[in-house]
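Risk register update: the risk of archive-format incompatibility is retired. Evidence:
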Amino acid sequence: MPIYEYKCDGCKKKFSVLILSKSGNTPVCPDCGRNNVEKLISTFAHHRSVKDIHQESGEPTLIPRGNFYKDPRNIGRWTEKRFKELGLNVPDEIKHDIQIAREGESPGG
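Archived output:
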C-alpha cells in the first residue's frame, strides 16, 4: 500500500494519500476540497545501522582521520576506546555526554 504525495493547484498545500487499491480516483485536497492536484515525486530515507556507520568510519585511532568526527557518534567511540586502553572506567558524566553524541548531538552544545 503506497503513500503518494500531492500538491493542490488551488491552495498550493501538500498532502499525502494512502492508496488502498488501484481505483484510479483522483484524490481530493483535504484543506480546500478541490480535486485538481499534482502528483509529486516523493523523497525517501536510507537508514544505516550503527554497525554499518562504525565500519564506514573505521576503527578509532589515537589520531583519527579528518572526517572521523563529522559523525558525532564517533566522539563516544574514541573516548570509550581510550578509557578501555588506559584500564579506566568511564565516569557517569562522560557516559552521559557519549549518549548525547550517539543521538547525533554535540555534547555541551
